[in-house]
Fold this sequence. Notes:
Blueprint: E1 6-13, E2 32-40, E3 43-49, H1 50-56, E4 64-67, E5 72-75, E6 77-79, H2 91-98, H3 103-108, H4 113-122, H5 125-141, E7 144-150, H6 157-171, E8 177-185, H7 195-211, E9 217-222, H8 229-241, E10 245-250, H9 258-265, E11 269-272, H10 278-287, E12 290-293, H11 295-301, H12 308-314, E13 318-320, H13 334-343, H14 349-355, H15 358-363, E14 381-384, H16 391-394, E15 401-406, E16 409-413, E17 416-417, H17 419-426
Parallel strand pairs: 1-4, 1-5, 6-7, 7-8, 8-9, 9-10, 10-11, 11-12, 12-13
Antiparallel strand pairs: 1-2, 2-3, 5-14, 14-15, 15-16, 16-17
Helix pairs in contact: 5-6, 5-17, 7-8, 9-10
The protein binds N-(iminomethyl)-L-glutamic acid and fe (iii) ion.
Amino acid sequence: MSSPDLVVFHARITPCAEEETRMGRIEELATIEDGALVVRSGKVVRVGESERVLSETTLGPDTRLLDAEGRALIPGFLDPHSHALHAGRRIPEMQLRQEGKGYLEILQAGGGIQETVRATTAADDAAVVRDTRRRIGQAVACGTTTVEVKTGYGLTPEREMRLLRLLAQVRRRAPITILRTFLGLHAWPLGTEDRPVHIAEMNALLSDVAAKDLAEMVDVFCEEGVFSPAETLSHLAAARAAGLAIRLHADELRPSGGAELAAEIGARSADHLLAATDEGLRAMAEAGVVGVNLPGTAFFLHEHPLQAERQRAVGLRAALATDQNPGSSPTFSMPMVLSLAMHMAGFRPAEALLAATRNAASALGLEGTHGQLAEGFAADFLLLDDSDYRVLFYAFGMNPVAQVFAAGRSIAHDGRLTEEMRQWMDS
Ligand code: NIG
Ligand code: FE
């Protein structure tokens, strides 16, 4: 067996490898007080007590040894829901909402998502790719090692296909894992009249999207006044027939039947859920659909509070994500999301950490390769600036992530990206 590339020792390791990850069934996470992690070819080959691992591992001339000096070591965050592919910001809209205008009201008047569609359409390709990579860089500095990115600021078949092409460019030679979701049904394309014709056209794209390997997943904004459960079902059925994984934006602002639909069709995840009914949440838990919570959106939209207790009551498999987008959640920071989940929604630190690692991996279909530190899994991990991982919840609004590793390589240190990450962002 060849020698390891990296051995991190004297770390307080929380591998997040527990069997049970449902809300209400998690108390504490197993932690190795003085632990070591051995990495070879981008994967974890061993996790255990420092003394034992060090005495039983044969180091090679190129093996890098890193003394963690007692700091907490956890899996890298997986951010399973972002809209990072876009141009522009929407700062005035934030204030309009504070003055009482509703999110959907602004959208229906041709603003909101439509404004970002106009900005993204007007921006040149290179600018969209560069801005998206910069956003991903900011996420990495805060500990994200896998991110999902959606299309959705094109809305017509041509413009959505352009965004898929740009997403392929964003992903090229990326030091972290980037998954792609087609969100053609994100809002109604202005100037298009016939609903069934438009949906049929968008459905028809999906076999091409799959055949050309342009995305792994398909999502729909299923919401009263946006796309109905019947329209959502039609699109997601076409996605499934094309071999793509399915998920949906469900019950973000009003109870719209999204959680129930997700359970009925066995979606991989249903996301948002702030206005979901208890029956809908229960049906999702029973069907094994992951609930992706977006506390940044609850915080920034001031519409409905996120309540962990409702998900505990039904034993939901809960994930956490940023929802990074210019309208409802401009943050890239998973530590900020964790703090909001604890302090505003009542998640326990153990529940929230599993939600940002293990369950986030399930929402992305990566449960066999990412999200925990166990033999054979990706060597995506973080060293924090404290021995207690709960510093993530304590130092809210700060960045307690001291070092970020993706596939065993250091990509950020003290909030600054390494040369490898910077080169990718600027290339
Ligand atoms: O998840 N709700 C739909 N989509 C995004 C917001 C997109 C935007 O406002 O630009 C969301 O909240
Ligand atoms: Fe979203």
